[in-house]
From TrEMBL:
<protein>
    <submittedName>
        <fullName>Proline utilization regulator</fullName>
    </submittedName>
</protein>
<dbReference type="InterPro" id="IPR018060">
    <property type="entry name" value="HTH_AraC"/>
</dbReference>
<keyword id="KW-0804">Transcription</keyword>
<dbReference type="InterPro" id="IPR037923">
    <property type="entry name" value="HTH-like"/>
</dbReference>
<dbReference type="Pfam" id="PF12833">
    <property type="entry name" value="HTH_18"/>
</dbReference>
<keyword id="KW-0238">DNA-binding</keyword>
<dbReference type="InterPro" id="IPR009057">
    <property type="entry name" value="Homeodomain-like_sf"/>
</dbReference>
<keyword id="KW-0805">Transcription regulation</keyword>
<feature type="domain" description="HTH araC/xylS-type">
    <location>
        <begin position="159"/>
        <end position="255"/>
    </location>
</feature>
<dbReference type="InterPro" id="IPR050204">
    <property type="entry name" value="AraC_XylS_family_regulators"/>
</dbReference>
Length: 255
């Protein structure tokens, strides 16, 4: 039996209020979840994560189109990890934190790996915990370059871009449109965006289309052709090819 339980979930638009006897890490790859702990409320997105200490009451409500990694962490198992006591201190109090580009990319990769190899959830969970510890432990020691990336992040406002994209997945999306939303020239936007996220704007759009498509493939009865149209592909064939390249499984098999 795995020591840690890691799940990729779609949190429904229904309010849930509870507590549990284990710590919890919440990271999202797309979509939004409203989450509140002891009077402190924020939105969990691809840019904002959350640490929930054991036994702390919390409430949440998803938007129905999110893809969220939920890691359950039994307190007694942290002692088995290298630097387990240091990781334990991350859960001293409820905490929301900014997800840096590198951790966001790792979250995407590990969510994909979890889908492909669910039996490796414990190993994937440990890797995710260690990566989070390294980031949060090093965050106060940011260099000038890292602070520059943070400034770019604030200027780009990925949450605003994500919200706009989610409303226009069926449309043609141009870099000029995204740049205008951030009041940047297309060239400057393209270079800043790539520095911040590690991918080009159009690759990011494609990834977001496919992440939303997977939610629809798995959790709706819509035809694949209809889903292809809703997320901006010209036909089912091109959609299926892109889906297979990204997820290494066809949409029909994934369903």
């Amino acid at each position: 039996m795995a020591q840690f339980e890691l799940h990729s979930r779609n949190l429904a638009p229904e309010q849930v209020a509870h507590s549990h006897d284990f710590h919890q890490l919440i990271l999202a790859t797309c979509g939004v979840t409203e989450l509140a702990m002891e009077g402190q409320g924020e939105r969990v997105t691809a840019r904002r994560g959350c640490l929930i200490p054991s036994s702390r009451h919390h409430e949440y409500q998803g938007d129905g189109s999110n893809r969220t990694l939920v890691l359950d962490i039994p307190v007694q198992h942290l002692a088995t990890l290298e630097k387990g006591s240091e990781i334990e201190r991350l859960f001293d109090k409820p905490r929301f934190f900014t997800v840096p580009p590198a951790l966001n990319q790792l979250t995407h990769a590990l969510a994909h790996q979890l889908d492909q190899c669910p039996a490796l959830q414990n190993e994937i969970a440990v890797l995710l915990l260690r990566a989070l510890y390294m980031y949060l432990n090093d965050a106060p020691k940011q260099t000038a370059d890292q602070l520059g990336v943070r400034c770019i992040s604030e200027r780009l406002d990925l949450e605003r871009l994500d919200a706009w994209l989610d409303q226009h997945l069926a449309d043609e999306v141009r870099v000029e449109q995204l740049a205008a939303l951030c009041a940047l020239s297309p060239g400057h936007f393209h270079s800043c965006f790539r520095e911040l996220t590690g991918v080009t704007p159009l690759a990011y759009v494609q990834r977001r289309r496919l992440e939303h498509a997977r939610t629809l493939v798995r959790h709706s009865t819509l035809s694949l052709g209809h889903i292809a149209m809703l997320v901006g592909f010209r036909d089912q064939g091109s959609f299926s090819r892109a889906y297979r390249r990204y997820f290494e499984i066809s949409p029909s098999s994934d369903r």
